[in-house]
Amino acid sequence: MILIGIFLSSLGIGLSGALMPGPLLSVAVAESYKKGFLAGPVIVAGHAVPELILAVVFTLGLNKFLNNDLAVGVIGVVGAIFLAWLSLKIFIEIRKGVEIDLSARKEVGWGPFFAGIWASVSNPGWIVWWATIGARYILLSLKHGLVGMAFFLSGHVMADLIWYSVVSFLVSKGRGRISTKLYHGLLYACSAMVMIFAFLFGINGIKTIMRS
To answer: Per residue in 135-148, pLDDT tens?
Structure first.
């Protein structure tokens, strides 16, 4: 059940990040106009390459902290703060009337796979995510060995695959927009879910620090 919880929470938090407009969405829209539906999954494959590399690097660096309650607790609290910020950011963007525009046809020119890689590594928020939330998840997953890491990473990648497959499908079918009401409903749900995880991460981090 713990492994399933890691997978589902990783999927949910991953979706909350994927749903917000950013460089990867722009790339997905542009490439889907040229390549069709398959552009979405291929972009996610490219996006996953640097994520897997970073996950390995973080795993090697964080593995030595598994038995250090103070370090684990601090990472948990920092992750909780970032999650709370992400939840509030999503809520504020909804109130501003954020929408998904699938009609932009900005050329990328590298093909979907390499565009997916570049959209990741060129985004400063991507590094911050892995240094905070990602680091906390890696520590949590490593308690269950490589199987735990597999559940975390598969949930995270699945979130991107689901969303960008939907985007590329709609673009390939000539849909210019996603229903604003539906989109905002999804974002509200994500914002609430992320805030719950922020609370849980924070409580767990504080408890871990206190017993260190």
So the answer is: 888 888 888 888 99
Cα separation, 175 vs 164, whole angstroms: 14
Main-chain dihedrals φ then ψ at residue 177, nearest 5 degrees: -145, 160
The closest alpha carbon to 132, from 193, 190, 189, 202, belongs to 202
Q: Determine the 3-state secondary structure of 44 from DSSP.
A: helix
Instruction: Tell me the two tokens of residue 100.
Output: 């998904």
Parts of the chain with a pLDDT under 50: none
> Alpha-carbon distance 6 to 54, whole Å?
19
Q: Cα dihedral sign for 39, 86, 96, 188?
A: positive
Instruction: Take residue 138 and report the two structure tokens written for it.
Output: 């890696």
Cα–Cα nearest to 129, from 85, 192, 180: 85
Residue spans per domain, the chain: 2-205
pTM of the shown model: 0.86
